[in-house]
Specification:
This is MLP-like protein 423 isoform X2. By secondary structure, the protein is an alpha+beta fold. The chain is built from 4 helices and 7 strands. It has helices at about 15-20, 25-30, 85-90, 130-145; strands spanning about 1-10, 35-40, 50-55, 60-70, 75-85, 90-100, 110-120. The longest helix has 20 residues, at about 130-145.
Length: about 150
């Protein structure tokens, strides 16, 4: 299995970023051009729950995710079980983590995206677009927070 990761520094505390990511109503407002809607279709966000992401133009249209692991206030790992990514990679697991920035814990955090994946054929490239989209979306957490 292959993997890739990336991170961005956010000007908000890790706990706040975590709460924003977990709340369907808030996450759907952060950047509607990238993520039009998020919705838990089964469960409450705990392991085993299913969440659908409806993405904006230029991205995969929809992704259905099964939550595998939750470290409350810190990270969430999910497997993609439906949508375009599932047609290219099996498995495809992603983890979003929000880590307090040392020395500035109450002000900043590191938002990390990590994926583990196996392309269904040798011609399928690593999911660079998914990485860029995830990190680009995370960068909007700051802008959204400033607007509220």
């Amino acid at each position: 299995m292959e993997s890739m990761k990336g991170e961005v520094v956010l000007n908000i505390p890790a706990q706040k970023a975590w709460e924003m990511y977990r709340d369907d109503e808030i996450i759907s407002k952060i950047n509607p051009n990238m993520l039009a809607r998020a919705e838990y279709i089964e469960g409450d966000g705990s392991p085993g729950s299913l969440r659908v992401f409806k993405l904006g133009p230029g991205y995969v249209r929809e992704s259905t995710e099964k939550i595998e692991k939750v470290e409350a206030g810190r990270s969430i790992t999910y497997s993609v079980i439906g949508g375009e990514l599932r047609n290219m990679y099996d498995p495809y697991k992603a983890t979003f983590s929000f880590i307090p920035l040392r020395g500035q814990e109450g002000e900043k955090c590191i938002a990390e995206w990590k994926a583990e994946f196996k392309p269904l054929s040798p011609s399928i490239p690593p999911p660079e677009k998914a990485k860029d989209a995830a990190l680009g979306f995370l960068k909007h957490f700051d802008k959204f927070q400033l607007c509220r």
